[in-house]
Amino acid sequence: MKPLSLRVLGLFREMGEDRLDLHILFEAGGNQPEERLLVLDALDELVQAGMLDARSGDFYALTEKGKRATAQP
User: Fold this and answer.
1) How far is CA 42 from the centre of its chain?
2) pTM
3) Are 39 and 63 in contact (CB under 8 A)?
4) pLDDT of residue 33
């Protein structure tokens, strides 16, 4: 898994949430448009890996697999 994908998962742990908005998740990449595109790639990787579910309204939610991954130190 790519480091940025791990940072995205880390945001869920840091914020103590199972569901986050895309705008918050962009924080994992930075403020530049190209960095935000990389966050979208990371989100796609996490969805494909079964760790996140894409929800309506630009929200992403941890799956059970994602919850287990974020529970690890």
Assistant:
1) 7
2) 0.89
3) no
4) 83
Question: Which CATH code of 1.10.10.10, 3.40.50.720, 1.10.10.1760, 3.30.950.10 fits the domain covering 3-71?
Answer: 1.10.10.10
- Long-range own/partner contacts, residues 4-11 (CB < 8 A, 24 or more apart): 4/28, 4/29, 4/38, 4/39, 4/41, 4/42, 5/42, 5/45, 5/46, 5/49, 7/42, 8/39, 8/42, 8/43, 8/46, 9/46, 9/51, 9/66, 9/69, 9/70, 10/70
For 3-16, write each residue's pLDDT tens digit. Answer: 999 999 999 999 99
Q: Where in the chain are the domains?
A: 3-71
